[in-house]
Write a structure and sequence with these properties.
The chain has 143 residues and is mostly helical. The chain has four helices and two strands; from the N terminus they run αααββα.
Length: 143
């Protein structure tokens, strides 16, 4: 019997909800993104990392979730590299036919748009490979 009473799907779903709530906000990544990411990664590690995952799809779900959470840390690191420790990003203004010039301005990230999705793919693949290797060692008679 599994001694861990935490439902894996519920925990991973909650982690995803937290990350999506953070990612939906406009503007640059900030330090709280890093705090949220580290907290959620610690929860996943505590409740899910040592659990057996005999099916590949379970490892994939865990890997994707860890990667999307870790992408917040990549974002913070990227903002620090591109903006400095202030994490201010840059002002981005748009105009439309019915608004005066520069009337819609938002603080935008300096991070190139392709870095978060690329880092998600790379982190997913690395975590998946590590997890499958760990799962095979656990299931082997000598592991």
């Amino acid at each position: 019997m599994d001694e861990n009473p935490v439902d894996a799907a519920a925990l991973l779903g909650a982690a995803l909800a937290v990350v999506l709530a953070v990612l939906i906000a406009e503007g640059p990544f900030d330090y709280m993104n890093g705090v949220v990411s580290i907290t959620v990664l610690a929860i996943i590690y505590a409740y899910q990392w040592e659990r057996p995952r005999p099916q590949r799809k379970l490892s994939l779900a865990l890997s994707c979730t860890i990667a999307i959470v870790a992408t917040l840390l990549v974002g913070v690191a990227g903002e620090i590299v591109t903006s400095g420790l202030s994490l201010k990003g840059h002002l981005e203004c748009t105009t439309t036919a019915d608004t005066p010039p520069l009337s819609k301005c938002v603080q935008a990230s300096n991070l190139p748009f392709w870095i978060p999705p690329t880092s998600w793919v790379v982190i997913t693949l690395v975590v998946y490979a590590i997890d499958r290797h760990k799962q095979r060692r656990k299931s082997s008679p000598t592991g």
